[in-house]
Amino acid sequence: MSPGFEQHFLRRRSTNIHELSRTPLRVLVTSAMWIDGGHWLPYAFLYTVFHAPAERWLGTARWLVVCAAAHVLASLVSEGLLLKAIRDGIAPHSAVDTLDIGVSYALAGVVGVLTYRIAAPWRYAYLAVATAVFALPLTETPTFTDIGHFLALLIGLACYPLTRGRGKAWNPKETLTALKG
User: Fold this and answer.
1) Which of 49, 82, 92, 164 could form a disulfide with 144, with the two C-beta atoms 3.0–4.6 Å apart?
2) What is the annotated signal peptide range for this record (predicted)?
3) Using CA atoms, how far apart are residues 89 and 85, in angstroms rounded to an integer?
4) Count of structural domains, the chain
5) Containing domain of residue 41, as a range?
6) Contact call for residues 150 and 111 (beta carbons, < 8 A)
7) Residue 174 lies in a domain
8) With a threshold of 0.85, does the pTM exceed it?
9) What are the tens digits of pLDDT across the range 81-133?
10) In this model, does residue 61 exceed pLDDT 80?
11) What is the CA radius of gyration of the chain?
């Protein structure tokens, strides 16, 4: 695609305020089908590290619920906050067309729910790192996307009820002991 057409194409599939007000269901689905920037290798790595274990552990249906909840709720809340910023004069009116696509809110939600896959005390270290990764951008000049990522992590953590009955938590110490023989 030419750069101009690509921008037009992605903007029509973006969960920006303009598109959400016109066709919310369509853009909530289609925005989740694209990656920002077109660099797929980091996403392939992150899917292998986070999404694959989460789907295997939770099952496809529960994993999809976590992904959808994180993507939809974080998109709606972050865009709502952006709309408030526009109305309050903090953000320019042109921000209604800000490009907002990608799979990152679903990823952040899955990172959150995976907290419950790890046995204590390792769980707390994982949660501290995940929280720092998503909270650190909020300490400088947070964007609506930074807020959305942090919200998606919290939504993933709120999906705890989906993890019940999914087997024993993974203990890294047991894995290391087994590898040593």
Assistant:
1) 82
2) none
3) 6
4) 1
5) 35-179
6) no
7) yes
8) yes
9) 999 999 999 999 999 998 888 899 999 999 999 999 999 999 999 999 999 99
10) yes
11) 18
